[in-house]
Task: inverse folding
């Protein structure tokens, strides 16, 4: 059954009876996931080795199960493989980044970026086998009629988090790239007026000589508050 907006539709509940995991299995699963996710790192150097396409498609499908405001699912995932399109995206992104690193970001933001070793050069946009460009749908278009979407940023942000998690658990590396401004992505990819670029996610295997910053995550007691 094809999805349609649920405006003015009646509440129609259906049973939900998932199998309950035992307490021991739940603890083991959570511990294993915690250890695996603690290994996730943002990667900027990608191998040209091919990646199974279905793995990426499945990760996008997982991301699309994210909760969203009023179940409006205000996201579009554009999977980009065409080398010419990717070259155009990289050229436009690097021009925006050139302006940003030349001073548009401001010294405080540049200072925060220095430990990460980033600069205006973005080879990952053409080196990674796949680019996933995530767009947020600010409203739903039904012909010429517009329907407002709710909690768009929150909904799409959750979906991107689930996308990164799915990619990592499937053995792939990724990063979230957000050149600012990102209007050029709508133009290059021919997206409709109701969509706004949210993030670019290069996907692939890390290059053999890939490095990452020597970062330390906050301890759990720094981010978890009990009351």
Result:
């Amino acid at each position: 059954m094809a999805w349609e907006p649920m405006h003015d539709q009646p509440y129609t509940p259906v049973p939900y009876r998932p199998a309950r995991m035992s307490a021991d299995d739940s603890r083991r699963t959570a511990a294993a996931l915690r250890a695996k996710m603690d290994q996730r790192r943002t990667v900027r150097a990608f191998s040209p080795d091919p990646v199974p396409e279905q793995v990426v498609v499945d990760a996008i499908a997982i991301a699309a199960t994210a909760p969203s405001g009023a179940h409006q699912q205000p996201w579009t995932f554009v999977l980009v493989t065409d080398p010419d399109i990717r070259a155009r995206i990289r050229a436009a992104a690097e021009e925006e980044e050139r302006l940003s690193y030349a001073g548009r970001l401001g010294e405080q933001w540049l200072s925060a970026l220095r430990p990460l070793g980033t600069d205006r050069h973005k080879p990952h946009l053409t080196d990674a086998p796949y680019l996933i460009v995530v767009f947020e749908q600010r409203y739903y278009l039904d012909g010429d009629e517009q329907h407002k979407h709710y909690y768009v940023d929150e909904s799409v942000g959750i979906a991107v988090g689930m996308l990164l998690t799915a990619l990592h658990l499937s053995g792939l590396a990724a990063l979230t790239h957000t050149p600012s401004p990102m209007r050029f992505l709508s133009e290059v990819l021919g997206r409709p007026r109701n969509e706004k670029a949210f993030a670019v996610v290069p996907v692939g295997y890390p290059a053999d000589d890939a490095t990452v910053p020597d970062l330390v995550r906050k301890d759990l007691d720094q981010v978890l508050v009990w009351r």
Remarks:
- The first helix runs from residue 23 to 37.
- The chain has a mean pLDDT of 93.
